[in-house]
Amino acid sequence: MDQFREDIRYSWRSIRRTSAFTLTAVLMLAVAIGLNVTALSVVDASLFFRPDGVADVERLVRVPNSWMRYDQYLKLSQDLRALPLAAQSGVTPVSIGSGVATELVQARYVTSNYFSLLGVRPALGRVFLPGDDLGAASTVVLGHRFWNRQFGGDPGAVGKAMRVSGEIHTIVGVAPPGFTGVDRQVVDVWLPAAPARHIPGGLWLIGRLGEGVSLRQAQAAVLLRYPPDIPRLGDGSGRPARVLLTPVYEDLATRLLQLNLFVVCVLGASTLLVSIACANLAGLLLNRAFHQRRDLVLRMQLGASRARIIRQLLIEVLLLNTVAALVLLCQIAESAPDSAVI
Hints:
Elements: H1 2-17, H2 19-47, E1 60-62, H3 70-79, E2 85-88, E3 92-96, E4 103-110, H4 114-118, E5 124-125, E6 139-142, H5 144-151, E7 161-164, E8 167-174, E9 189-192, E10 204-208, H6 215-225, E11 246-247, H7 252-258, H8 260-291, H9 293-301, H10 306-341
Parallel strand pairs: 4-9, 6-8
Antiparallel strand pairs: 1-10, 1-11, 2-10, 3-4, 5-8, 6-9, 7-8
Helix pairs in contact: 1-10, 2-8, 2-10
């Protein structure tokens, strides 16, 4: 321990003596650490999040491999009493407006009980009613951000007509702020999934566990009544295929599938930048070691072992990283109050 403390003191004096090198290395490491932390924060917010505006999210589950037609969902939901079901599609682009005013927005098709199953209350107007998915009257619920952008937050938007994919829909409500469903994907408009409507990719299931119903019990009930013509998951071991129920906030496989390109790009860019910073720092350290070769030779002649010299050099690198992390933390602490005000 005495030698360890001596190595720390020696390394600290050494990096203080070469202030230009220390400043360059610390700034380089601080930028690399900051970029890496930012990238990991973005990935964490995209994959490990709890849906906003959803009631009792711990009891919400979904079947990741449940892509099915509306009639298949309807039959399963009627036969299954142990697990109330709703369904939603993936996010798909649709056009709104007509002529030169046509604009592509992100839409999601959902069953009429989707919002009620999630326990979502609209910010304005109402959500879908049971008759909205029968095709008698075309309705639409706007995302809160889209409502602010398109209508300037005007409450009079409810009741107006909107042309969506060439069809006239009536705006019946506005979703609460921050609500994107059980996924992080931004949704501009919510459309009812009607039996006669073609839904790209089909629907997948969301369920809410009832009081006293375990995940295993609900999974067994779904498996018993699951449509036989829909593919099921298999693990390749020869055992019977199965239907999996996963809590929505733990369904990382589905979120990663939805965001795979985004996640790969963010992590790839972060890894590349950190690698460049590490390569540059390694070059600086080699150059510095070259200029310190006389000092290193003298220490070895005075009895310092090769292992201790290597340890002292590693401690020096560790000190540089620690100083860089402290600089980054100080910067974050100074900017935090401003961010809170904004």
